[in-house]
Design a protein that fits this description.
The protein is an alpha+beta fold and 158 residues long. It is 58% helix and 7% strand. The protein has a 4-stranded mixed beta sheet, with no helix packed on it. It is elongated, with a radius of gyration of 31 Å.
Length: 158
């Protein structure tokens, strides 16, 4: 299904580029024909037969390109979503939580100034950050900070 949609999207992109090229060629032919004629009544056939259809093809090509790029992007997003869903269902147990438990197991809790979460010291979200500071247990217990959903730190009481 994905390959069919992607092929159609690429076909639309090719059609858009072809329409743009054909429109540009018609506009150049129309300009060349108009520039060689002195009288307006002799210029009108070039405008009617080349320049106006050329401009219409350029607009149609631009619309096809925009639609084709959107279709390609939507197909890629759907593919990535399917990969995420497949990876999530393989890693989750029956409770819906990741199979391995919390990512971090350290007992020390840290936060980043201005942050809204508190983390275990070895949480990947704060590991290696020089600005991370120790959390006051009262601040975490008062609801000022929420526990990190990645490392799942245990509630502390001081």
């Amino acid at each position: 299904m994905r390959t069919v949609r992607l092929r159609i999207a690429h076909l639309v992109l090719r059609a858009g580029w072809t329409a743009l090229a054909a429109g540009a060629v018609l506009c150049v032919i129309g300009w060349y024909g108009v520039s060689g004629e002195r009288y307006a009544e002799r210029q009108l056939p070039y405008l009617a037969s080349c320049s106006l259809p050329g401009a219409a093809l350029i607009v149609a090509g631009a619309v096809l390109l925009a639609h084709g790029r959107d279709a390609v992007a939507a197909t890629r997003v759907e593919e990535l979503y399917a990969l995420l869903v497949a990876a999530g269902s393989a890693d989750a147990d029956e409770s819906g939580r990741p199979a391995g438990g919390p990512v971090a197991v350290s007992g020390e809790t840290l936060t980043v100034p201005g942050g809204t979460l508190w983390h275990r010291a070895d949480c990947p979200l704060v590991a290696g950050k020089a600005e991370a500071v120790l959390v006051d247990g009262r601040l975490a217990a008062s609801g000022g900070l929420k526990p990190c959903p990645v490392c799942e730190p245990a509630e502390e009481t001081d």
